[in-house]
Structure formats: C-alpha cells, structure tokens
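Next comes this protein:
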Amino acid sequence: MRIFVLGFVGGSWWLQQQAALPAWPLLGLLIFGSILGAVLPLNKSVLAGRRLALGLALGFVWAAGAAHWRIGFSQ
C-alpha cells in the first residue's frame, strides 16, 4: 500500500511539473491503462512495480481532473 501511495504522490507531483494540462484523450488512455494493469493476472515478481505504475497513473489523472475542474469553475 505504501508503494501505491508514493506512486500517487509522485504522479500528482509529475503533473505539477508540466507546463500545461494534458488533454482529455491522454487522461483517458492513462485510465484505460491503469484499469488494464489492475485487471491482468498478478505475478508476484512485478507486483511492486505494477502498484507503483498504477499509483503514478492514477495520481496524475486525479491531479489533472482536479485542475481541469478548478479551471472550469474559474472561467
């Protein structure tokens, strides 16, 4: 669980380092990849890496969605 949380925080930080918000199709692709990665059969040797990647993707998407939502209200 800790590795997922670290990945989530890292994904949120990664978005904050971007010069512009990503487009919705990229976010949809990240969501699709996260769901696919979570559904695939688990292999114990790559479980930590998969959790980290899932956390990164979901943290990035969550931060981008929150930013798009905030910008929508300010306009």
Notes: Residues 47-74 form the longest helix (28 residues). The mean pLDDT is 84.
